[in-house]
């Protein structure tokens, strides 16, 4: 494989994927939107850029010409972008299917929202959440991702297109991970769970589980060592954008990826007390020990990706926090 098209090349995942492909001596072609506000992420890189809107089927057809493989990362987050995301995936998959005889691979980026693994929003069928978990997307954005998977699989079935799907967990980059272990984030989850009677954490219509947390906390950005009522830790298994890019590379290169879907997440589920302790160590902010009236579990099992395509996520908890602090201090560009 020598030339790879990365759709959404200036995006959070796409810009990191471009760099990893270049590091592996692939030629890279990227699509970006006209006047893309994130185009500067690609400044100085040796890639060919094709500017246009993948919602236009003619542009999608032109974009896939002359490449050996396609990584479809183009995506706009939010329910308002449902039609855009579905149409772009349809156009890319159709254009790839037209080249099924000579295109080596299409890897399309979906989301763990197809399950979902947000236990505060909907109770999971079981933990950890693996690729066989029932698909029950809530909201237009997650639905667009499941439809995108079905579109890709339908074109692959009809044409023989060699396709694979990856499903990242909650993606972080820059310094975003620093807020995930704080009083403010825990309070937001407790607020959200009370609007979701189908979730694992719902406590009844009159409950206000965030009130005590906000009363005892020093500040919203204080590290929070959250546990459930039985003392078991809250758990979060998010994923660094660089590891999502790595998972895509694995799916592009491994023969076993064809026709399959793979969860992408950080090396292991992260307990909140462990995260709060590391954040406190590195920032000097005293962690708050808080026993919540409900336990949050957000996990995404990556065993299949590890064993089938050699996915070995590099960014664990300490690595993500250290890099995020360096980024915030202006000592790293986040790539």
Q: State the low-pLDDT regions, or none.
A: none
User: What's the helix-strand series?
Assistant: EHEEHEHEHEEHHEEEHEEHEEHH
Output the CATH class name of the largest domain: Alpha Beta
| C-alpha end-to-end distance | 24 Å
How many helices? The count is 10
- Under the CATH scheme, the architecture of the largest domain is 3-Layer(aba) Sandwich
Short synopsis of the structure:
This protein has 335 residues and is of the alpha/beta class. Helix content is 34%, strand content 16%. Strand 4, helix 3 (82-97) and strand 5 form a beta-alpha-beta unit.
Structure description:
By secondary structure, the chain is an alpha/beta fold. The chain has 2 domains: 3-169 and 239-266 and 299-314, 3-Layer(aba) Sandwich (Rossmann fold); 176-236 and 270-297, no CATH class. It contains 10 helices and 14 strands. The strands form 4 sheets. Strands 3-2-1-4-5-6-11 form a 7-stranded parallel β-sheet, with helices on both faces. Helix 2 crosses helix 3 (82-97) and helix 5 runs antiparallel to helix 6. The radius of gyration is 20 Å and the shape is globular. The two termini are 24 Å apart.
Give the secondary structure arrangement, pairings included:
Blueprint: E1 3-7, H1 14-23, E2 27-32, E3 48-51, H2 57-63, E4 69-72, H3 82-97, E5 105-109, H4 140-159, E6 163-168, E7 171-172, H5 183-193, H6 210-216, E8 224-227, E9 235-236, E10 239-240, H7 241-253, E11 261-264, E12 270-271, H8 272-283, E13 288-291, E14 297-298, H9 303-309, H10 317-328
Parallel strand pairs: 1-2, 1-4, 2-3, 4-5, 5-6, 6-11, 7-10, 8-13, 9-14
Antiparallel strand pairs: 9-12
């Amino acid at each position: 494989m020598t030339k790879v098209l990365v759709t959404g090349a200036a995006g959070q995942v796409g810009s990191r994927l471009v760099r990893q492909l270049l590091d592996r001596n692939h030629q890279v072609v990227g699509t970006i939107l006209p006047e893309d506000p994130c185009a500067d992420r690609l400044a100085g890189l040796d890639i060919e850029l094709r500017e246009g809107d993948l919602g236009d089927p003619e542009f999608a057809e032109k974009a896939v010409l002359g490449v050996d493989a396609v990584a479809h990362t183009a995506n706009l987050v939010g329910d308002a972008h449902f039609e855009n995301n579905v149409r772009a995936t349809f156009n890319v998959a159709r254009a790839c299917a037209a080249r099924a005889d000579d295109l080596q691979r299409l890897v399309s980026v979906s989301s763990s929202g197809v399950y979902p693994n947000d236990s505060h929003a909907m109770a999971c069928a079981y933990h950890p959440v693996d690729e066989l978990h029932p698909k029950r997307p809530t909201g237009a954005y997650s639905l667009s991702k499941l439809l995108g998977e079905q579109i890709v699989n339908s074109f692959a079935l009809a044409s023989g297109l060699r396709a694979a799907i990856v499903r990242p967990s909650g993606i972080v980059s820059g310094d975003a991970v620093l807020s995930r272990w704080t009083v403010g984030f825990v309070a937001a989850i407790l607020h959200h769970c009370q609007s979701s009677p189908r979730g694992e954490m719902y406590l009844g219509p009159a409950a206000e589980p965030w009130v005590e947390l906000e009363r005892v906390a020093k500040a919203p950005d204080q590290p929070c060592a959250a546990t459930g009522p039985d003392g078991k830790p809250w758990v979060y298994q998010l994923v660094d954008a660089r590891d999502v890019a790595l998972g895509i590379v694995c799916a592009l290169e491994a023969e076993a990826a064809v026709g399959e879907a793979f969860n992408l997440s950080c090396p292991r589920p992260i307990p909140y007390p462990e995260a709060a302790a590391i954040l406190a160590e590195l920032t000097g902010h005293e962690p708050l020990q808080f026993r919540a009236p409900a336990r949050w579990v957000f996990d995404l099992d990556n065993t299949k990706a590890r064993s089938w395509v050699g996915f070995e996520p590099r960014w664990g908890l300490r690595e993500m926090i250290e890099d995020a602090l360096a980024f915030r201090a202006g000592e790293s560009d986040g790539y």
